Amino acid sequence: MKNEFHKHGERLTYLLALLTGISTTILVFATKDFLVSHAELGYMSAFVGSLLSAATGLVGIPFPAMILVYSLGSKLNPVLLGVIAGTGSAVGEMPGYLTGFGMRPMVTQWKLYKYIKAWMDNRGLLVVFWAAAIPNPIFDLASIAAGVARLPASQVFVTILLGRIVRMLIVALLGRYIVLSN
Are 63 and 113 in contact (CB under 8 A)? Predict the structure, then answer.
């Protein structure tokens, strides 16, 4: 009975994750043009756009926020913009960690689990920081692995926050100085 309940719970978790990813992707595409065209909303659009863009990472669309932050970098304070957009992005990335946290009972059955666990125990937060700071398609794997390894959520969030602030600050500064120099 417990095994059957566990199977149904896993299926429901996967279905909810898939539906969340699809609905968030639709929301990003539906609001992307609005957020870019309403730059007067400024910092709020950077926060919301970054949060939505990061939340769709499970389906591989991390770049609308970077385009938005780059565009706003020429109009707003790039340091404040980087901090606000990085914060929104960090909040949007936490579902990946929670997915890994919830998947642990299933993942512990995998042969690869002991390697993931050792990797995250030895250098997990450093991996999460660099994966968050550098635009790349594997960040969600690092976030999920941190959840599977049960790294403390507060430490993972702060690490993602610092990495995303670095990323968005660089993007905002590029937007400020490349756009203004033309």
Answer: no
CB 145 within 8 A of CB 100: yes
Tell me the three state secondary structure of residue 111: coil
The distance between the two most distant Cα atoms of the chain, rounded to a whole number of Å, is 67
Boundaries of domain holding 146: 2-181
Whether 70 and 167 have beta carbons less than 8 Å apart is answered as: no
Cα 148-154-159 angle, rounded to 5 deg: 85
**What does the alpha-carbon distance between residue 94 and residue 51 come to, in Å, rounded to a whole number?**
10
pLDDT in tens, 80-119: 999 999 999 999 888 888 888 888 777 777 777 777 777 7
Q: How confident is the model at residue 59 (pLDDT cuts 50, 70, 90)?
A: very low
Instruction: Return d(Cα 80, Cα 43) in angstroms, integer.
Output: 8
How crowded is residue 154: how many other Cβ atoms within 10 Å of its Cβ?
8
So what's the pLDDT on residue 85?
A: 95
Q: How many domains does the chain have?
A: 1
